[in-house]
Amino acid sequence: MPSVYAIPLGKSTDPHPLELLSAEQQQRLADCSTLIRLRKGSIVFGEGSESRYLYNLSKGMIETYHVHGDGQRRITAFMFPNDLFGMSENGRYCMTAQAITPIVAYRIPIVQLARLMQEDPSLQLHLLCKACHEIRESDKARFRQCHIHPGPRRTMP
């Protein structure tokens, strides 16, 4: 079943991510989704291609990357089971997603997801919690990276 694990926005006694979706929400997402299975190395979607789906990884691991003008790949994220991926801008995927292991994922049509969110405002809140959770995790990783590689120190002349 589709899953959205995150730390809730409000106070919680559990510091670990929790399943935010109810059984009914999971079923409604599963009903409008297609379960896909891809081999290691398969491209899920390409940077700049039309964005029609959001993906919920069930098994395996994905890397997302951006290709620079000089052809070099810059890995932007690794996705693990229960992660959502496929964010877009102006109807286009912002990066490429590639399976680095065999994967199983729910492919959720964005049009149907939007309809479900209009019908169920708590689903909107759960996806917002997930987005906030991912931003917090990204910020923590950047903070750790800055402490590992602080860069050159600059002095005033």
What does this structure look like?
The chain is α+β, with helices and mostly antiparallel strands and 157 residues long. The protein has one domain: Jelly Rolls. The protein is built from three helices and twelve strands. A four-stranded antiparallel sheet has the order 3-12-5-8. It has a four-stranded antiparallel sheet with strand order 4-11-6-7, with no helix packed on it. The protein has a two-stranded antiparallel ribbon with strand order 1-2. A hairpin with a 5-residue loop joins strand 6 and strand 7. The model has no long low-confidence stretch (mean pLDDT 87).
**Which word captures the global form?**
globular
Major beta sheet, strand line-up:
3-12-5-8
Oligomer category: single chain
Number of helices: 3
Strand content: 25-35%
Poorly predicted spans: none
Instruction: Please tell me the total number of domains.
Output: 1
The sequence of SSEs as H and E is EEHEEEEEEEEEEHH
Rounded Rg: 18 Å
Largest sheet: 4 strands, antiparallel
The CATH architecture classification is Sandwich
Q: Percent helix among the residues?
A: 25-40%
How many beta-strand elements? 12
Structural class: alpha+beta
Q: Whole-Å distance between the termini? A: 60 Å
Mean pLDDT: 87
CATH H-level superfamily title: Jelly Rolls
The CATH topology, please?
Answer: Jelly Rolls
User: What would CATH call the class?
Assistant: Mainly Beta
